[in-house]
Amino acid sequence: MQDLTDLYQSVILDHNRRPRNYSVLPTANRVGSGNNPMCGDQITVYVKLEGDRIADVSFQGSGCAISKASASLMTVNLKGKTIPEAEAIYADLHKMVTTGKVEDDNMSDLAALAGVYQFPARIKCATLGWHAALNAAKGDEKPATTELPGD
Q: 143 in a domain, yes or no?
């Protein structure tokens, strides 16, 4: 089990240090943003939709290692997916980061985020980029936030 934990930690550290698709996407036709005031995470996600398919996706922003690694993993996993497929992947991810259980073999590299459930405050960090991306894909220009209005 320790070997698996070490592998997951190395995946998160790698995606934090060398995030994939970390750039402004000049061909984006949708943009979403999000912030997590508790942790200081801020993200902008750029989505190129072709019909209901995410043809390309990238992000920029600043935040903790979990936030950046999750957004990087998200871009890799959402390219080529339809919006309903992206929503299903997010649902599986959310279940995983809140329970620690990897129930879908298709989670592959996203399983590295399973340990987040041990740190409930970090769940918001792991899901922020996903909320921003899904908002962008659905045309919702409202920024995603991890806090309720008035909090």
A: no
